[in-house]
């Protein structure tokens, strides 16, 4: 068996069957035990065996190397854990407001179209649409002849003929300028109130002077074109030919 002197590192060959408790080196004279681990060559040393009950590090692993290996191991494990995490994709925010307003607009337009007659009867709506220069027809519902303002009288003219003078007030119910309608006069029989004798239609004109009414011939003043918004206009109608047997009359509107 080949052993090494721990002092001078001199190899010494001894018999394996001889049990020695101590040995003296012939080279340096130091005495040592041949059974010591330090006297064995590196090839003869027992390999390190791992045991879970032992906390010592392997003899061939230094503290510095162990620390570096642990740091590398921790870094590799951390990188592996981070890469193994699943990153959820970014979800785009839903844009619902444009669709909501589009649906609301479609429902509103559909409701207006299906109930257009009801909307057109609304004076505020009609006034708004007319002010936007939309082509809406003139309607009788846009005007009102104030019943308490209507009066009639017979006037004797300078040629001893008589004419019926009807006066009253007409009101524009819309908040927009409108063309004047004509005034339609229907005469009914005195003995038969439901029997219409005649119907005449006259334009709304500037209010004539009393002096011009009694003159013959009667000069009809110029017709009025448009009424201002929510305005009231006094009118005077001179009926030169009244049917015989007339007992009553009614006034209505006739659109131009």
Morphology: rod-shaped
Helices, by number, come to 5
State the separation between the terminal residues, measured CA to CA.
Answer: 141 Å
Q: Specify Rg, calculated over alpha carbons.
A: 62 Å
Overall number of strands: 13
N-to-C SSE string, H for helix and E for strand: EEEEHHHHEEEEEEHEEE
Strand content: 25-35%
Nearest-integer average pLDDT: 78
What is the helix fraction of residues, given as a range? 10-25%
Report on the biggest sheet: 4 strands, antiparallel
Query: Low-confidence parts, pLDDT < 50 over ≥5 residues?
Result: 38-46
SS-derived structural category: alpha+beta
Description:
This protein is an alpha+beta fold and 256 residues long. Helices cover 23% and strands 26% of the residues. The strands form 5 sheets. Strands 5, 6, 7 and 12 form a 4-stranded antiparallel β-sheet that branches. Strands 10-9-13 form a 3-stranded antiparallel β-sheet, with no helix packed on it. A two-stranded antiparallel ribbon has the order 1-2. β6 and β7 (162-172) form a beta hairpin. The protein is rod-shaped, with a radius of gyration of 62 Å. The model is unreliable at 38-46 (pLDDT under 50).
């Amino acid at each position: 068996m080949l052993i090494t002197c721990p002092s001078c590192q001199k190899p010494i060959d001894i018999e394996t069957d001889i049990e020695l408790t101590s040995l003296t080196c012939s080279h340096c004279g130091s005495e040592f035990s041949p059974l010591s681990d330090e006297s064995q060559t590196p090839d003869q040393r027992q390999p390190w065996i791992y045991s879970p009950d032992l906390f010592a590090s392997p003899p061939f692993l230094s503290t510095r190397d162990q620390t570096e290996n642990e740091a590398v191991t921790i870094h590799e494990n951390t990188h592996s854990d981070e890469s193994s995490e699943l990153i959820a994709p970014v979800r785009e925010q839903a844009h619902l407001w444009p669709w909501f307003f589009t649906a609301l607009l479609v429902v509103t337009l559909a409701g207006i179209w299906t109930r257009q007659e009801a909307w057109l009867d609304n004076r505020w709506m009609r006034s708004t649409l007319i002010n936007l220069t939309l082509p809406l027809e003139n309607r009788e519902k846009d005007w009102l002849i104030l019943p308490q303002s209507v009066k009639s009288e017979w006037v004797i003219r300078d040629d001893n003929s008589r004419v019926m003078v009807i006066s009253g007030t007409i009101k524009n119910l819309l908040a927009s300028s409108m063309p004047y309608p004509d005034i339609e006069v229907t005469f009914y029989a005195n003995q038969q109130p439901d029997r219409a004798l005649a119907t005449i239609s006259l334009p709304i004109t500037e209010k004539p002077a009393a002096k011009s009414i009694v003159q013959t011939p009667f000069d009809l003043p110029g017709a009025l074109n448009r009424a201002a918004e929510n305005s009231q206009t006094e009118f005077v109608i001179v009926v030169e030919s009244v049917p015989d047997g007339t007992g009553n009359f009614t006034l209505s509107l006739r659109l131009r």
